[in-house]
Structure formats: C-alpha cells, structure tokens
Write a structure and sequence with these properties.
The complex is a heterodimer. Chain A is mostly beta strands. Chain A is built from no helices and twelve strands. Classes of the chains: A mainly beta, B mainly beta.
Chain lengths: 113, 116
Amino acid sequence: GNSVTQMEGPVTLSEEAFLTINCTYTATGYPSLFWYVQYPGEGLQLLLKATKADDKGSNKGFEATYRKETTSFHLEKGSVQVSDSAVYFCALSDRQGAQKLVFGQGTRLTINP
Amino acid sequence: NAGVMQNPRHLVRRRGQEARLRCSPMKGHSHVYWYRQLPEEGLKFMVYLQKENIIDESGMPKERFSAEFPKEGPSILRIQQVVRGDSAAYFCASSNRGQGTPYEQYFGPGTRLTVT
C-alpha cells in the first residue's frame, strides 16, 4: 500500500538558517503530494502541494519539488523564522477514489532566535 | 467564512463510557474525512463520508467505532466502551470535491480524547 517516510525529528535551527525536511514516498500509480503544517493546539493547514512530476509547490517561502525518479518531495526554506516553529507533515493521496491522505510521522521543527 | 468546526475540543472519558465527537464541515462541503493522531505519530485515515453515506471505512477499527453524516447536522464519530488506547487527537477534514484536482481537505482543530 501507499506510505510516506519523513526525516526524523526533532529539528532545531537558528533563525535565518536553511531548512530541509526530507520526505520519500511509496505509491502505486501517480499520487498527489502535500506538505501540511500543525501549530501547537491547532489542526493541520495545507502548506503546499504538487500534482505531477517536476511540479514545484511553494508558499510562504517554503518550496518542494515532486521528484518521480527519486520518489521524493523534500521541503526547503532558505531562511527560517521563529514563527516557522511547528510540526510538518508530508502526505500523499491517490488521484482517484476517496483521495484519503496518507501521512508521514511528522517532523517537529524548533527555530531559536 | 467559518472553517471546519469540531467539538468538544477536549473530552475526558472513563474506561467503558461512550465518546461522541462532532464535526461541522465548511459551508458548501458535503464530504467529510476522519483521521486519528496517536501521540508523536502522524495522522491515520479512519473513514470517509458523504451526506448519508459511508464511502470508505477501511481505516475504522472493526468494533466499537462508528461514524455518520446525516442529511442535517454535523458528522458524528462515536466510540463505544472506550479504552485507554483510544486516547488520541481526532481530526475531521472536509472537502468540496467539486472544483479542481486534487480535492483539498480543510482540517478542523481536532478533539483531544483522554480516557482515564
């Protein structure tokens, strides 16, 4: 079945550092890929998405590129801020049927000033 | 434009009691998903419902768990005879499925269930 593997956390960085959170997936067919962010005590918010190979999703300075050849969707940001501290989830969904989301285990990111 | 509403936000139940979790989807959304998040883990799909229909319940435990999404009112996730292992955060997401692909799911704030 489909699965998502994320870089294990927690990750702690200083403000303005470069961020990479690795995500790889296993799927039959051609899934859509997502990054969600969860702030403390809140639900998940969609951060960015990509629906086909070589698509780049971007939002709020974050980027991720759909790499079919390496089955990856790594999250990057050039200069992180304290407000980026949260838990980040990589996820995929089938393009047909229920389109239920399959999540990675999450990566907790802490940014120190 | 109200988002997905879930209540209660926190629920404490003793072992053997029933837990009822409610989810009101975004206005205009007729598709609801329930996910469970165990401590320090990612979210796991439980069930997908449309109005008055269960479409996919492949992630639901076979016993004690049920879900409904009536024609009127919120979606309900019901857990009978709760056990400590049911302690988790339960998230609801809603979708329009009428525009674009993939159909974006909008998440509520979750209900944190604690079984004592």
